[in-house]
Amino acid sequence: MALEPTEFRRLIEQHQKMVFSIALRVAGEHGTAEEIAQDVFLELFRGAEKLESEDHIRFWLRRVTVHRATDALRKQARQPEVDAEEWLEEVHFDTTDAALSASLVARLEELLRALPEVQRVAMVLRYQEDMMPEEIAKLLGQPLATVKSHLQRGLTLMRRKAAITMKEYVRET
Amino acid sequence: MCVKPNHDPFEAELTKAMRRVEAPQSLAVYLMNAAEAETHRATNAKSSTRLTPRLFTFRRMPNWLGGAIAAALVAATFASLQQYRHHERTLEAVHQFEASQRITDRALEHTREQLQRAGIQLDQ
To answer: Least C-beta-crowded within 10 Å: which of A89, A108, A129, B58?
Structure first.
């Protein structure tokens, strides 16, 4: 049975930012991300009676969005190469933090998009969604050790690439 | 494995950079329109179903009804078979009686002839 319109609107308003952001950072393209978000929410609309709580809804939305975004990514012939500045024009986020410039954000997004799929997904869930490795493992249905390996590898790759282009973010060990 | 973001400057910057972004306004508009269209289609589908006459279909038969019909057919067949056999036995009995009567009649006639030849009159 489908959701009531008012309930559906409430869920859209509450979760669209999360769904769209996950889709965008995993799939890498704005138009694709919007299509993914549409599909995910319509699937929620048709079958939400099976979801028992807000936590369950959030878990379901994240999992389905990740799956659809990785499917979209695999269908692409090559890694998306959207220009960082062009990507910056399409999305809207808060850059009022004096310590964080728009170009830095774009640069880090580039580094993220350069990661292999499995590491990119883990990094998005960790640093965008603030999920712990145990939660990520449960969401993805993967062993905890695998998730930790993806996170460590993704962070190392990004740090190394950042060190080449952004010397001020090299961490002395 | 993961150092807490506030202990690692790079991870801290990463967390700031990866804040969620705003979804396009067209997303919510599209979704509400699509949901309304689906609800409308579902409502129409239900209405069209009600307009068709309710025909009895074998799919709606209760499970026990088939067995009951089969049992009734078997009982009716058995009863008619019994009746047929009774009728046959009756006919056979009548035929045997008639045959016996014919034999008896012939025997009596033979005896009368013999008595007449002997000069005995039975009517006296």
So the answer is: B58
